[in-house]
Specification:
The protein has three helices and five strands. It is α+β, with helices and mostly antiparallel strands and 123 residues long. It is globular, with a radius of gyration of 20 Å. The termini are far apart. The longest helix has 17 residues.
Length: 123
């Protein structure tokens, strides 16, 4: 009996692809400060949307806070990977504005912007 097998990816190319995926994940480091910032933003906007809908997604360049884990519904971004830290907020056209912050407590100064963004998606 001859069994014909469809051509598959070579084991070497599969290993290279897996290594590249792992390498990308290794470059993303979620810090305690990012988690604390995420929790502050959740506390601020929970009056506008159900807290279960607020998700976090860390990338190499920023820590994203999304509604419904949907990258088309960004709530905020934390740019903490450089010396000057920024909070990114979004206008109704989803343009990001970066606000320099010194401490995590500075996030509270932008509560109205964060709530307005959350409210715009909730309607």
């Amino acid at each position: 009996v001859i069994v014909s097998q469809a051509p598959t990816e070579s084991p070497v190319s599969m290993l290279v692809a897996q290594a590249e995926q792992l390498d990308e994940k290794d470059k993303v480091v979620t810090t305690e400060e990012e988690i604390e910032g995420f929790n502050i933003i959740k506390a601020i906007i929970r009056t506008e949307v159900d807290v279960k809908r607020i998700a976090a997604r860390d990338t190499q360049s920023y820590f994203g806070i999304l509604l419904d884990d949907n990258n088309r519904k960004p709530l905020a971004r934390l740019h903490f990977n450089r010396q000057q830290k920024y909070l990114g907020t979004f206008d109704p056209e989803k343009n990001e504005t970066r606000h320099p912050i010194e401490t995590l407590d500075d996030i509270f100064a932008h509560a109205d912007l964060l709530k307005a963004t959350a409210k715009s998606y909730a309607t």
